[in-house]
Design brief:
The protein is elongated. A 9-stranded mixed beta sheet has the order 22-21-23-24-20-25-26-27-28, sandwiched between helices. A 6-stranded antiparallel beta sheet has the order 1-2-3-4-5-6, with no helix packed on it. The chain contains 16 helices and 28 strands. It has 3 domains: 1-60, N-terminal domain of TfIIb (Single Sheet), CATH 2.20.25; 80-268, Dna Topoisomerase Vi A Subunit, Chain: A, domain 2, CATH 3.40.1360; 311-507, P-loop containing nucleotide triphosphate hydrolases (Rossmann fold), CATH 3.40.50. The chain starts with 6 loop residues before the first strand and ends in a 14-residue tail after the last strand. The protein is of the alpha/beta class.
Length: 563
């Protein structure tokens, strides 16, 4: 029976005599809904399991036509519809030929008064064990057992490549496009049961060199591809991409050749994070503008060795207490957020947001508002506010003291992703972990390790530039307040700070010396170009609170050449 035929009218049934229970269909077949008799277009009749043609009757599993008897060699599950009640026909709407349907045992029939399509499933011995029935309303029924079977697997023993689809129609489609010559099978229960079906057939699939997963191009299908690829032997799984939702839709839209291309161009599955060097062409050849996206620092002393600040990098400023770490960060906030007009996120855990705002305004006014509030009248303060902290380029986290790293990271991510801040300033790392339970052995070190790993991942993921303040351990002899040289080994808490940062910049100042306001800038780590050591000097102006270059060799610089 051609399931795609249409109902025409009712007429009396010649078998049971019903006046109007027999339906007549456009392909010539008739069906009585009273006595369940099916009249084939050729005049043969199917009643209660027997088939009448020229007067012969089938009753015991044999098929009689012209008097001869043909025994069915395939064992059939008692629950399945007998083959003599099934018919292979072309699926016109699906563009599937009769030959393809016949090869894959995809039939049409009437089941319990309803026309349906029947996909036959076989076990490893070639015996029919189940049938999947598909009705016109897209509902399904299963006779026998198809659990964990692959539709069409009885046709292929082994080979170089096998394609697995998400449904029987797609299986027929791909096979037909390949001339029904190359292995194609389907999972039985769609994307939701794909992994279980693949797991049950790993031994069978291992007989093929390549397994191409061609599931539907929707979210469940893509997810199922990933899950199935993970359990296949390494290097065996390939994932195909289609221009339409599934292979049959491609065929219906005249894109059958693209299905074949998808088979042969399927990409080998790789776990997350593993890429082929061949996939990096655009990043290494075409799209290199970001490599030129380096912003010069406002001081020659810092620019000399660092070659500027770049997106997606993590910079750590460190020194002893009161050396100017927060001051240099404030200058950078002003530089990026005011002079360059970039969006900046500020997390200053040892000062209020008001103080941060006043400090930025002070830089703008070139006068310290906190020490001398009357250095500028209200109009000047208003202009300074609107041109600095109030210019819409700054976003601050209003929090004082310690906080857990998860909370901190969520705030930073929001600043970067939702607010668009590409320059992040965190002052400082040690206070983040100060409130954590770090009494256990190595507690602080482990906490900082985790925090630095997360910060590193965040800048890699988002492309943001992050400037971080970190404290130092006290040296055994000469203190940092007395101008002791800074080293990476003195970073407080964890080696992860040095290991995971792109740049570590140390500040040195002898607060009790002859030049207490001159900072030595020492680059301790430079992943970008490897150039480390003293890069220059900055001079702090106590009246304005500003930092300026102190060029070596000038009258203002008290140090001899150290380069």
């Amino acid at each position: 029976m051609n399931q795609e035929s249409t109902f025409l009218y009712h007429e009396p049934c010649p078998e049971c005599g019903s006046s109007d229970a027999c339906g007549v269909f456009s392909d010539g077949h008739r069906y009585c809904y009273s006595c369940n008799t099916y009249f084939r277009p050729d005049g043969s009749v199917k009643t209660d399991g027997s088939v009448k043609t020229d007067g012969s009757v089938k009753t015991d599993g044999s098929v009689k036509t012209d008097g001869s008897v043909k025994k069915e060699v395939t064992r059939v599950s008692k629950e399945c519809i007998p083959f003599e009640d099934l018919e292979a026909v072309s699926l016109t709407k699906r563009c599937i030929s009769k030959d393809t349907c016949s090869k894959f045992k995809y039939f049409s029939t009437v089941y319990k008064g309803k026309p349906c399509q029947v996909a036959c499933y076989y076990d490893d011995s070639g015996s029919l064990v189940g049938q999947k029935l598909r009705f016109p309303d897209k509902s399904f029924a299963v006779l026998g057992s198809i659990s964990n079977r692959l539709y069409g697997s009885q046709l292929w023993a082994s080979g170089k490549k096998i394609v697995i689809t998400e449904g029987e129609i797609d299986c027929l489609t791909v096979s037909q496009l390949q001339g029904n010559k190359w292995p194609v099978v389907s999972i039985p229960n769609g994307a939701q049961g794909a992994r279980k079906s693949i797991e049950a057939n790993l031994e069978y699939l291992d007989k093929f060199e390549e397994v191409v997963l061609m599931f539907d191009m929707d979210e469940p299908g893509r997810k199922a591809c990933e899950e199935c690829a993970k359990i296949l032997p390494a290097g065996k799984a390939y994932i195909a991409n289609l221009p339409c939702k599934d292979p049959n839709e491609c065929l219906s839209e005249g894109k059958g050749s693209e299905v074949l291309q998808a088979v042969w161009n399927a990409k080998p599955y790789r776990p997350d994070g593993i890429v082929s060097g061949t996939d990096l062409y655009e990043k290494c050849v075409t799209n290199i503008d970001d490599l030129k996206d380096s912003v010069e620092y406002p001081w020659v002393a810092l620019q000399n060795k660092t070659k500027g600040a770049r997106h997606g990098e993590l910079y750590v400023f460190t020194s002893g207490s009161g050396m100017g770490k927060s001051t240099i960060l404030r200058e950078l906030e002003y530089y990026f957020g005011v002079q360059r007009g970039e969006l900046c996120g500020i997390v200053a855990l040892e000062e209020s947001t008001r103080k941060t705002g006043l400090e930025l305004m002070s830089i703008h006014l070139n006068s310290r508002l906190i020490l001398d509030p009357e250095c500028a009248d209200e109009g000047e303060r208003s202009r300074a506010f609107s041109e600095t902290i109030g210019n819409g380029r700054f976003f601050l986290y209003d929090h004082f003291g310690s906080l857990d790293s998860g909370n901190l990271l969520s705030k930073l991510r929001y600043m970067i992703v939702s607010l668009g801040c590409k320059r992040i300033f965190l002052d400082h790392i040690s206070i983040v972990v100060s409130g954590m339970d770090t009494d256990e052995d190595g507690g602080e070190r482990k906490a900082i390790d985790k925090l630095m790993t997360n910060l590193r991942s965040l800048v890699e993921e988002t492309g943001a530039t992050m400037f971080v303040v970190s404290h130092l351990k006290r040296p055994e002899k000469k203190g940092h307040e007395e101008g002791a040289q800074v080293s990476l080994s003195q970073l407080r808490g964890s080696g992860a700070i040095a290991q995971l940062s792109d740049m570590v910049i140390g500040l040195e100042r002898n607060q009790q010396g002859d030049n207490p306001n001159v900072l030595t800038i020492r680059v301790l780590k430079n992943r970008f170009c490897g150039d480390t050591g003293i890069s220059g000097y900055l001079e702090y102006d106590p009246e304005t609170g500003r930092l300026k270059d102190c060029p070596q060799g000038s009258e203002d610089c008290p140090f001899e050449s150290e380069f």
